[in-house]
């Protein structure tokens, strides 16, 4: 393992540990000001789906993109925790019987299997909502304008023109709503999976009050990373196994989904990933050595086994 790869792994693990601890604080039993109580079943189900697993790649991208600009780590971790709450809510709802109907997530029963459908829906709703409580907190950045920009960007990446919109396009591609015509896989990916990963990158630029050129560089990198992540995910669904993935393999084929692999073939998909890595690397050139950890993150995404 190279020095850069070793440094990346250590930094990824450190951010995951810090994010886990921070989420534990944010999802504690104690109510915040203006809250009445935090119902035991709801907070326990939120913690079940948010703690004790995951690489925390999205918070890592926030922290490392912010580090390029010397942003204080605590604020970046808070923004990353808000993003992770959105991600965890999306997994809960994605696993539901009306969506992908999955029984396994991160090697253990999905939330609706461990609890029930109603609890899973409400836990997802609560995680989505608390994300916007977190992203607006003063400790993220002293400038209210920066916090507003972060909040708006997170809403747009998570909402109708981002992840939620991508989810319904993905369902349409399965034929859920009748014949929807040909599936634009790249567009679905850009919204469903790529939007939150892209936010992880542009969040650092917003926190760092980057120049227009620096913001564009992280935006370009985030878009390339997001697509590479989804192609790697599609490849794992074909080539991986449930024990390693922590979730059922072959689910896309069972659902009749059109993916990058079904469109490009395995070798074509792998070449596309290599092209995206080159594009991401070129985008980061503006940052010189400060972009090395983000470069390593792109290779991690492309080469991961789970």
UniProtKB/TrEMBL annotation:
Pfam families given in the database record: polyprenyl_synt
Required co-factors: Mg(2+)
InterPro entries, alphabetized: Isoprenoid_synthase_dom_sf (IPR008949), Polyprenyl_synt (IPR000092), Polyprenyl_synt_CS (IPR033749), Prenyl_diphosphate_synthase (IPR053378)
CDD domains per record: Trans_IPPS_HT
Keywords: Isoprene biosynthesis, Magnesium, Metal-binding, Transferase
PANTHER family noted in UniProt: FARNESYL DIPHOSPHATE SYNTHASE (PTHR43281)
Family: Belongs to the FPP/GGPP synthase family.
Protein name: Polyprenyl synthetase family protein
Organism for this UniProt entry: Bradyrhizobium aeschynomenes
């Amino acid at each position: 393992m190279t020095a850069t790869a070793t440094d990346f792994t250590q930094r990824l693990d450190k951010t995951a540990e810090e994010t886990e601890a921070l989420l534990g604080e944010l999802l504690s039993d104690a109510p915040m000001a203006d809250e009445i109580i935090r119902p035991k079943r709801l907070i326990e189900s939120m913690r079940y789906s948010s703690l004790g697993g995951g690489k925390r790649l999205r918070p890592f991208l926030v922290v490392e993109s912010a580090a390029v600009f010397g942003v204080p780590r605590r604020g970046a971790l808070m923004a990353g925790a808000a993003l992770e709450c959105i991600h965890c809510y999306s997994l809960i709802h994605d696993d539901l019987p009306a969506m992908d109907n999955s029984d396994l997530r991160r090697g253990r029963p999905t939330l609706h299997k461990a609890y029930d459908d109603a609890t899973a829906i409400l836990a997802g709703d609560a995680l989505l909502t608390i994300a916007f409580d977190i992203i607006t907190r003063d400790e993220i950045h002293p400038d209210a304008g920066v916090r507003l920009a972060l909040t708006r960007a997170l809403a747009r990446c998570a909402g109708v023109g981002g992840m939620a919109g991508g989810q319904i396009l993905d369902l349409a591609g399965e034929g859920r709503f009748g014949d929807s015509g040909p599936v634009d896989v790249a567009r679905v990916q850009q919204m469903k999976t790529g939007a939150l990963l892209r936010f992880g990158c542009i969040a650092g630029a917003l926190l760092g009050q980057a120049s227009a050129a620096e913001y564009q560089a992280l935006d370009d990198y985030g878009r390339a990373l997001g697509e590479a992540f989804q192609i790697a995910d599609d490849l794992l669904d074909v080539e991986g196994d449930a024990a390693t993935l922590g979730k059922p393999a072959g689910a896309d084929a069972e659902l009749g989904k059109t993916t990058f692999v079904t469109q490009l073939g395995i070798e074509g998909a792998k070449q596309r990933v290599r092209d995206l890595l080159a594009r991401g690397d070129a985008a980061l050139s503006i940052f010189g050595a400060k972009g090395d950890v983000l470069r390593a993150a792109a290779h991690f995404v492309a080469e991961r086994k789970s």
